[in-house]
Amino acid sequence: MKHKRVLCLLQEKSSLAMIFLIMISLTAIMLLPCKVVDASVARAPQVNVGNTDQSEKPIILTNDRVVVTLQYGFEQQARYGRTMQLTAKIYNKGESFTGEIATTLMNEEQDNIRYATTASIVGLEKNVVTLNIPMNRASKGIKFEILSSSNDTIVEEVIPLNVVNLGTYYYVGILSDMSTPLSYFEYFGNKCVSLDKSNFPSDYLGLDILDVLVIENFKISSLTLEQQQAILGFVKRGGTLVLGSEAYYEDGISAIHWLSNQNIISLDKTSDG
User: Fold this and answer.
1) What is the pLDDT of residues 169-221, one digit of tens each?
2) Is the pLDDT of residue 25 over 80?
């Protein structure tokens, strides 16, 4: 089988970011530097530093004024030492109001840290508010609040938080249209999460939880502009990007050229027999 192996370097003014564009087949050996263990039992050693009872389903809070759907991280899992993106989808049952959406990280030391943003919540519509929260403490839960401009409490709820520490292992996001997950990425103890257009973040901080982003059998151009910019921001901040499937090679290169507005400074193509 012939395939291309391409190494591209993206030069920035202030730093050198690397994008690994590697054409791979599904039978390829794991390309990341990983610890070799028994593949039959290998799973990421998820040292939990928070609540472990949280399911992967969204958290729904409801009262006579609003219905709030909360999602954080990927699959309701945050990562210690990284940014947790919390998305609140707020359906307002009544009149529009301007208020504060806030979260407070709860920890044993009781020196709780609060993050907040002001937003206009339109009546009879679904409003989306995102908070980016640094997870630098072993927090077991968060207090979520919605306060009106007149300081009226609309929502106040303490939510258990699932926070993991992967140590030296990798958190791998796999963006793919394939029905069969690329499970071999977990054979070396890494944590993998499946991504598609519906759950892919719209800014790079939503990808901060990842070490590696693999794009396999997926057209980058099908993402929104914001989602494509998130990929570039992820790479510029030191993340590793792996593009698979030769058929999607040209689409990936053109997207990166366009988003970066810079030239890829080295491009080497080889063919294997």
Assistant:
1) 899 999 988 766 566 777 777 889 999 999 999 999 999 999 999 888 888 88
2) no
Architecture of domain 49-164: Sandwich (2.60)
**In this predicted structure, what is the pLDDT of residue 108?**
77
Model pTM score: 0.76
Q: Is pLDDT of 6 > 90?
A: no
Whole-number Å distance between alpha carbons of 273 and 256: 28
Least confident of 52-66, 73-87, 129-143, 153-167: 52-66
Which strand (E) or helix (H) includes residue 250?
helix 249-260
Return the SS3 of 234: helix
Q: Where in the chain is the domain with CATH 2.60.40.1930?
A: 49-164
